[in-house]
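Quarterly update from the structural biology core.
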Amino acid sequence: MPVTAAAVPLPLFPLHTVLLPGAPLGLRVFEPRYLDLVSECGRGGGGFGICLILQGEETGAPATPAAFGVEALIEDFGSDRGGLLALRVRGGRRFRVAGVQVRDNGLLVGSVHWCDAAAAPAPRLRPEHAVMGTLLGELLEKVGGEYASANLRRLEEAEWVGWRLAELLPLSDAQRLALLQEDDPHRRLDCLLRWMDE
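Predicted structure, tokenized:
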């Protein structure tokens, strides 16, 4: 697995959902530990990690996060109708959690290794996955929104096609987590093909 040599600290926001690379996610923030996290990100200009909760809840005592997650980069923020902080984040790099510490305020901080190689060339779809690019093109046409202006050349990129299908298809959190743990974009597409046939 291609990971960085040294682990880096990353504050974690465990959720009952899986954030995928490139995918948007809306969050409502009200617990003091997560308000502190957002302030810290604002001061430092960085992101935080989102991991699927394996045991526990989103509020209260620190939950047990999955060993793999995705960096959340804040794109926009404001207040919802109830006056709570509302964030719009987008998935960035994948990471593997090597260890976790709990701060006094209950915030989890992971010691993480980044999984994705920097500036690696985007692998192209293989012939056996061409149907996946076609399917994604049809889905994007129906979904519209931010995808209405997607660059159609990306439909030839194995990694982008895999992540967008994983985002749009009705997969379970366990399936999305399995894809996060897979480094090879072609094997991710193999998994998606197998699940679609089941």
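The longest strand covers residues 85-102.
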